[in-house]
Design a protein that fits this description.
The termini are close together. The protein has four helices and seven strands; from the N terminus they run βαβαββααβββ. By secondary structure, it is an alpha/beta fold.
Length: 133
Amino acid sequence: MSREIILPNIDAMHKFAREFAKTLHAPQTVALHGDLGMGKSEIAREIIKTLRGEDTVVPSPTFTLVQNYGGISHFDLYRIGDISELEEIGLQYAIDNDITLIEWPEIATDKLPKNTIHIYITQNGSGRKLVLQ
C-alpha cells in the first residue's frame, strides 16, 4: 500500500517528520530515497530530535557512515562500495534492535526487513512529494 504526501515547504517537511517519528518503535527500519538535496537528512534529523530531544546534535553521517543515538541508528550508505561493508558498520545489529534510518539504502535492499518503510522524496515545485511504501 502506498501513500503520497505533498509538502509545500521545509516547515511542512519538519512537521511531517515530527508526526511520523511518533509512530516509530524499535525495531523499525526507514529507508529514505531521493536525489541530493531532497531532504533525506532533514527528515532523519527531525525524527531523531523528536525522539531524543530538540537539543540533540545530529550531524550528517556522510563521512562516519553511521551515528547512534541510544536506540536510533542513522546510516548514510552513499559511500559504501561493497555490500560486505554493511556488516562492518553494524547495519544488521541496528535493524534487529533499533529504529534505523537509512539514507541511500539502494545497496542494502536485500538486507532490509520486509516491514521496512520506504520514503521516496522528489521535487514538487518548490516543495517535495513523499511516497511512503
